[in-house]
Write a structure and sequence with these properties.
Blueprint (H helix, E strand, L loop, with lengths): L21 E3 L2 E4 L1 H13 L2 H8 L3 H15 L4 E4 L8 E4 L1 H30 L1
Antiparallel strand pairs: 1-2, 3-4
């Protein structure tokens, strides 16, 4: 039996789910993990602290940053080494901020669409 053959009240409670990411030339570039990492970098100004916050090793997090930058051909973070007194700092570049905003907007659009679908299902 196909789902379309069932009456609405015969269907199980369905909820839309999705996974979104950016691609370039058909290759994965930037997804939820990279987004969460950049948000944490923005908040902490430290790749070490950001990686820890999102549950990644420093090496893995740095690999994500390098892969995105290599694929896009732009820097998404800039690092400044610390001196004798204090630690360094990692900041998001304007290109990185644009990625954050675009990804957040895309996820919000999907969330709103899913909400509309759920409200239609609830009406039936």
């Amino acid at each position: 039996m196909r789902v379309s053959d069932l009456a609405a009240d015969e269907l199980p409670d369905l909820h839309p789910k999705w996974k979104v990411w950016f691609e370039h030339d058909g290759r994965y570039v930037f997804g939820r993990g990279a987004y969460l990492l950049l948000v944490a970098i923005r908040d902490t100004k430290s790749l070490t602290h950001a990686a820890r916050r999102v549950g990644m090793s420093y090496r893995y997090a740095w690999g994500i940053i390098r892969r995105v930058e290599k694929e896009l051909g732009v820097s998404i973070v800039e690092t400044h080494r610390g001196g004798a007194v204090g630690g360094g700092e990692t900041r998001i570049t304007p290109a990185g901020l644009h990625l954050l905003q675009a990804f957040a907007a895309m996820e919000e659009a999907f969330r709103q669409t899913a909400s509309r679908i759920e409200s239609i299902s609830a009406e039936e």
